[in-house]
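Sample log: Permease.
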Amino acid sequence: MTPRTPAPEAGEVAEAGEAADVRREPHGPPGRRVPVRRLVVVPAVSAVLLAATYLWISQVPLDAIARNALAGGNAWLRLWQHVRLTAVSTFWVLLIAVPLGIALTRRGLRRAAPVATAVANVGQATPAIGLLALLVIWLGIGPSTAITGMVVYAVLPVLSNTMAGLRGIDPQMVEAARGIGMSAAGRLLRVELPLAVPLILAGVRTALVLNVGTATLATFVGGGGLGDLITTGIQTQRMAVLVLGSVLTVALALLVDWLASLAELALTPRGLEAG
């Protein structure tokens, strides 16, 4: 007869199950899962849009005026100018709006918050082309005028979101940080700002997209950018030049918003992600 193997005791079964669970669990903190749709859709749409535009322009007969507008890497130059205008203006928006938003939520400057918000609202409520025209009187023609107008136009989303993010923090968390001996700077850097990051990043994302659109108006103040292609296409009635400038602007706005959404996801502290 074959000897019977004794059945394992309940304690041994539990220990074996726990050991198997330990082996199956990954070590370290769980990574963030980015939906494939979020990674693929916008770049794919932009690529299809650009490819279709390229194929269409390559099939359209171009006269000397259209060829001159698109020759010599002119489209790439205008695209680079557009990206530079957007990046520089957004940098100045961050440099102004985030510290100002922090300052206006501190006890000594809270009374000035409505005034600052009203001024920022006026800047965004003013039509962008009218604002640029007024700045030309003061600053003259050039990229600096365009950048100044873009900063004034885009400062409101970052300023208001910074203030809203800091004001929305649970006061008990700030009091708890104060209770364990944190300084005011420590509470701001280690408690308040990390909790306000999602709203601040949402404001930065909005400002970026606003600046991509507003940069097309830089052509009217000598700032360059893709607006040069659009206005050239309109003035000379060359559809290929107009379509190329418009499509590049749309594709750039889509890609900038996509990159900003990924940065927003990556920079948001763990546990604060939406959804």
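Observation: The chain has eleven helices and no strands.
Observation: Residues 10-30 have pLDDT under 50 and may be disordered.
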